[in-house]
Specification:
This protein is an alpha/beta fold. The protein is built from 8 helices and 26 strands. The chain binds beta-D-glucopyranuronic acid. Beta-D-glucopyranuronic acid (BDP) binds next to loops. Keywords: Glycosidase, Hydrolase.
Length: 531
């Protein structure tokens, strides 16, 4: 790598969008640092090791082994013949490598936190700059649509008002830039950086999830960063294709199941008004799931060597880093701190309580949730009372009562009534789905056919429409995706509305019909034809 000649006297930073799951970074022969955790950015100051105008060799060793101190956890087993085998309890392939941008940049260490509100037509923007070198600060707020400066102020923190504010609106977007200029003692600019933000509010009121005080109904998918050939790597072309398909089908939201997505993708959600449930990589924290499918090897979830204090420390770190990365994003309206953890074992209480508190401390402005697994219904789950919303993954008609949609409908409705009664909180259905082989048809309700997937979705839709507390449906999954090998997976998970190469199954047509005409989803609808 060559360091630009003009960077003499500047601080030089190496920044990684992610390295999955662990990395050791060298500049020439010197190790500059290590990173654990696959879905978060990290950076190293390499000023002392490189020189402006010179070149250096950058080497990154990426390690794909997961153990139970990792989030997500895993275990490398030693087989009798000496081979080592990676096992893990999550249902997506453990792609590893450098999946996101690697940048060499020159700048002082700094960032800004922006929070917003509004009163009538006046927006309030509160900012707080953190910088490594103290000095005066000037800020300007620029309307990204018009390019006009709508407010100016001085100081490392404060609040400014925007007259006739454009609210960040689901389905539409609406961004401003906060332009921060760091000054020297003579008020000369040292550095300028820009942070985009949106003015919007989020609040829960009884069964309602309010964005800008309007009831919002989540429509869309749990997704994966997953493509043939590039695995979990980010590509702008695929990002545009996926977000255009979301728009085509009438989706207004998604969950970043089961890890934080690339910053490029999140920027795109901010720009286009796609509402995001932002999830940590805490998936597979469950030794109580059927050993057959997930091969847990037995034992309790919350015990030494499984999910223990070390796992919890890594989990806490993932929460801190996720909030630090995404706190300024208007698209993010809810944190999901785990997917389908064991929430029926008593150990779950002590494990989760500090993590929920930590999330609220890191971000007092957004609600906090976790995604509940089917084996932990309202009368068995021990942790749901710590959270602001109920998020449920339910597979009636697939993993239970497979092929019997009538029984499924009754059981699902009864369970929802139980949640509604006990918690009196909004319910978002974060997963429901059926594996479907594209092109397979039957005149009967036969699992794995496109016809069954549609019938299954129709049944689910009916259940949601009849439950007042349901404020969202995110089907599992947006597209077929790769998983680890196992007898329950034929060339990966086939629950996609789209195939892995993004062709619509019959289910996609069904969902488009439903979602583009739903009255409940009027606020936040993205009109594909209008764009
Ligand atoms: C849920 C998980 C998800 C799986 C899905 C499935 O949250 O990761 O892919 O089930 O079985 O338990 O398809």
């Amino acid at each position: 790598m060559r360091v630009p000649r003009g960077w003499d006297g500047e601080r030089i930073i190496l920044r990684f969008g992610s390295a999955t799951p662990h990395a050791v970074v060298f500049v020439d022969d010197t190790e500059v640092g290590r990173n654990k955790g696959g879905y978060m950015p990290f950076e190293f100051d390499v000023t002392d090791l490189v020189s402006a105008g010179g070149t250096f060799r950058l080497t990154v060793a990426v390690d794909n082994r997961l153990d139970n101190t990792c989030i997500p956890p895993g275990e490398v087993r030693e087989l009798p013949d000496g081979r080592r085998q990676q096992n893990y309890l999550h249902d997506f392939y453990n792609y590893s490598g450098l999946h996101r941008s690697v940048l060499l940049c020159s700048r002082p260490a700094r960032h800004v936190t922006v929070t917003t509100g509004y009163e009538g037509t006046t927006g309030q923007v509160t900012w707080a700059v953190a910088q490594s070198e103290e000095g005066p600060v000037r800020i300007a707020v620029v309307d990204k649509q018009t390019g006009e400066v709508v407010a100016r102020a001085g100081g490392g923190s404060g609040t400014v008002e925007i007259e006739d504010v454009t609210l960040w609106t689901p389905g539409v977007g609406g961004l401003y830039d906060l332009v921060v200029t760091l000054l020297d003692e003579t008020d000369g600019p040292v550095d300028t950086f820009t942070q985009h933000f949106g003015v919007r509010t989020v609040r829960i009121d009884g069964y309602r999830f309010l964005i800008n005080e309007q009831p919002f109904y989540f429509i869309g998918f749990g997704m994966h960063e997953d493509h043939e050939t590039i695995g979990k790597a980010h590509s702008n072309a695929h990002m545009v294709q996926d977000t255009e398909l979301l728009s085509w089908i009438g989706a207004n939201s998604l969950r970043t199941s089961h890890y934080p997505y690339s910053e490029e993708f999140m920027d795109c959600c901010d720009r286009h008004g796609i509402v995001v449930i932002d999830e940590t990589p805490a998936v597979g924290l469950n030794w109580m799931m059927a050993g057959g499918i997930l091969d847990s090897g037995g034992g309790e979830t919350y015990e030494e060597g499984h999910v223990d204090d070390r796992t919890q420390a890594t989990h806490a770190d993932e929460i801190r880093r996720l909030v630090a990365r995404d706190k300024n994003r208007p698209s993010v309206v809810l944190w999901s701190i785990a997917n389908e953890p064991d929430s029926t074992s008593p150990g779950a209480i002590d494990y989760f309580r500090p993590l929920v508190e930590l999330t609220r401390e890191c971000d007092p402005t957004r609600p906090v949730g976790f995604v509940n697994v089917m084996f932990a219904p309202y009368d068995k789950c021990l942790i749901s009372d710590m959270f602001d919303v109920i998020m449920l993954n339910r597979y009636y008609g697939w993993y239970v009562d497979s092929g019997d949609l009538q029984t499924s409908e009754q059981k699902f409705s009864a369970e929802l009534a139980g949640w509604m009664e006990k918690y009196r909180l909004p319910i978002i259905i974060t997963e429901y789905g059926a594996d479907t082989v594209a092109g397979l048809h039957s005149i009967y309700d036969q699992p794995f056919t496109e016809d069954y997937q549609v019938a299954y979705l129709e049944m689910n839709s009916k259940v949601f429409d009849e439950c007042e507390a349901v404020v969202g449906e995110q089907m599992w999954n947006f597209a077929d995706f790769q998983t680890k090998y196992g007898f329950a997976r034929v060339d990966g998970n086939k629950k996609g509305a789209f195939t892995r190469d993004r062709r619509p199954k019959a289910a996609a047509r069904y969902l488009r019909e439903r979602w583009t005409s739903m009255e409940a989803a009027r606020y936040g609808r993205r009109d594909h034809r209008a764009r």
